Amino acid sequence: MKSVIYARVSSVGDRQNTSRQIRDLEKYANDNSLEIEKTFEEHISGAKKKRPVLTECLNYCFENNVDTLLISELSRLGRNVDDVLANVQLCKEHHLNVFFQKEQLSIFNADGKEHPFLTIFIAVLGTCAEMERENIKFRLNSGKEKYIAEGGKVGRKEGYRKPDEKLQEEYAGVIKLLRKGYPVRMIAKNEGVGISTVMRIKKKFNI
Questions:
Q1: Angle at CA 201, nearest 5°, toward 200 and 202?
Q2: How far is it, in rounded angstroms, from Cα 73 to Cα 156?
Q3: Is 9 in contact with 16 (CB distance < 8 Å)?
Q4: What is the DSSP annotation of 157-197?
Q5: Dihedral of the CA atoms 48, 51, 85, 16 (nearest 10)?
Q6: CA triplet 58, 39, 114: central angle to 5 degrees?
Q7: What is the residue-wise DSSP string for 23-59?
Q8: Which of 3, 33, 137, 174 has the most crowded Cβ, counting Cβ within 10 A?
Q9: What backbone phi and psi angles, to 5 degrees, belong to 106?
Q10: Does residue 176 contact residue 202 with C-beta atoms inside 8 Å?
Q11: Does residue 155 come out as left (phi exceeding 0), alpha (psi in the -120 to 50 range) or beta?
Q12: Is 66 or 130 the better-scoring residue by pLDDT?
């Protein structure tokens, strides 16, 4: 059976690295007679809306009829519970099984039926992770408010507009999925952006 590995850590400078994740997933694949076709590595904060390598990985799996996507843990599949659930649903629609090694769960069981407790498990773990991120955001916003209160200025300069090249780079994933004909709502969820943003990009580049 064909499989793909996706590994992610928070940042390039993080003391974590993807090698441990890949090594453990390669062992799992070997023990379960799975043939690894490709490995995707991403270094990006868990709070970032866009995960371009994850998008590339999912598209590769869908387009090449990969049987199983191997991921170290649930949190790697999205920045919050909504993202994880949306990506799980997307994988279901494309008949792509996903195995989460830490949780020892997969979307489909060996008999091909959906795992009965996966959605509940994702919701519980995802909510806990989201609460922690909200706590971090609260502390950051508190520092920002203090900075503004002391006369600091934030935001873009008046009249600033992003050049087309910058938009194409920033929304490369959105543009790619639009050109493939994916629905706007699905692209927004997959890329972690608003529907209005997808529509704006669609109109901007006449896709």
A1: 90
A2: 37
A3: yes
A4: PTT----HHHHHHHTHHHHHHHHTT--HHHHHHHHT--HHH
A5: -70
A6: 45
A7: HHHHHHHHHTTPEEEEEEEEE--TT-S--HHHHHHHH
A8: 174
A9: -140, 160
A10: no
A11: left
A12: 66
Rounded Cα–Cα distance for residues 206 and 4 (Å): 33
The pairing of strands 2-9 and 35-43 is parallel
Q: 0.85 exceeded by the pTM?
A: no
CB-based burial label for 92 (10 Å; 0-12, 13-18, 19+):
middle
3-state secondary structure of 106: strand
What does each C-alpha distance from 163 to 39, 160, 204 come to in angstroms? Answer: 33, 9, 11
DSSP H/E element including 73: none
CA distance 102 to 200: 39
In this predicted model, what pLDDT tens digit does every residue of 138-150 receive, in sequence order?
777 777 777 777 7
Tokens of 120: 């509940």
**Gap between the Cα atoms of 70 and 199, Å rounded:** 32
Residues 92, 62: Cα–Cα separation, whole Å: 11
The residue written with tokens 């989201």 in the block is: 130
d(CA 172, CA 33): 35
**Roughly how many angstroms between the first and final C-alpha of the chain, as a whole number?**
36
Using the structure block, give the residue that is written with the tokens 């992610």.
Answer: 8
CA dist 197 → 86, 99, 146, 170, 175 (Å): 18, 32, 30, 12, 11
The closest alpha carbon to 9, from 20, 1, 18, belongs to: 18
Q: Tell me, what's the pLDDT at 9?
A: 85
